[in-house]
Amino acid sequence: MASTEDSAFLFYSSSMASLVSHLSKKLKTFLLITLLTTVVVATSEKQCRNFKSIISFGDSITDTGNLLRLSNPNKLPQSAFPPYGETFFHTPTGRFSNGRLIVDFIAEFLRLPYVPPYFGSPNGSFDKGVNFAVAGATALEQSFLESRGIHYAYTNVSLGVQLRRFKQSLPNLCGSPSDCREMIGDALIIVGEIGGNDYNYGLLVEKNIEEIKELVPLVISTISSVITELVHMGGRTIMVPTDLPIGCWPSFLTQYQTSNKEEYNPLTGCLNWLNEFVEHHNKELQAELNRLQKLYPHVTILYADYYNALLHIFQEPARFGFMNRPLSACCGTGGPYNFNNASQCGTKGVDSCIDPSKFVHWDGFHLTESAYGWVAMGLLEGPYTLPAFDWSCPGFDIKNRSRTSSGRQYSSSSR
Question: Domains, the chain, ranges and CATH?
Fold first, then answer.
């Protein structure tokens, strides 16, 4: 029979074991909560940034006036003449549209000034943003494209040249290396759209699609290298747009017009094979961005799906306020798509439509302000940016930001 002392000892041991087990569970729970909280906070810190500026690179989809300022006054681009700029700015600004571009709508949403072009005004004020995008720019160098037999009259300000000019400008833009790193880290950096012209020029000189496909890994590698450099310079949020559905472009619909109905999408009227090529580029781009995101987990790399944001408009144009089958250019002349490569918008005798807001296409290669606005809203509020922007950040007032100055709002009824 156990003694009273033995019973007391057993009771004490049992109680201590129970207490230790209880404390152990509590400690595990505490550590788990702490770990999850840390992960959430770290993720929030990565995505929750109140952008202080926009730094952009690219081509005519993003150019707010660089090509105009780089051009010979005796040989200005078509964007220097009416009716370009007629809708919003009421004068040509060098933008290849009747008004604002995607980057302009993003700036409005972030309550930042329109991003000024760098070229032609290197000593200007760029505290809130700077734009190095040049209409006609390619991802690959001009000399390389020419070595592949792609000879076309375009700018030689490639993506690499734009990045070099950005790096050279840093002492004037932000001063000390630490200040520059902070500026770059606080900016929304937009790399593109870029690469589309590499393919467009090949198509325009009638290279076959297999030859053009050979450029895809080279274009993706170039974009990846620029992103990597920007990360090493301090970039923390980098948005990389896809290529656009050029199978729906009046220029290419005119160039590759055929009586074979099987080559056209029955819903949109776009050329299937061209859009399938773009989808191939975009798939490779997304795979590379995913690789970079794993390599740099402290950076937010955003896949901006311009392609599907715009394709949705072609699939359901009425929902976005456009005419049915909106494949013709607002500004142009001739043919079923109102496009003639020899007589383009901005040249004498070429008129624009009465109501550009009903048109997706502006001039055969570029979109109207209305179309760009919907694409921008699809990126900022809709499902077309991966990962999605987080506008719930402390200090970021989302109220009234969901509408552009033209009153459009992206909602489920627009999807």
Answer: 49-414 (3.40.50.1110)
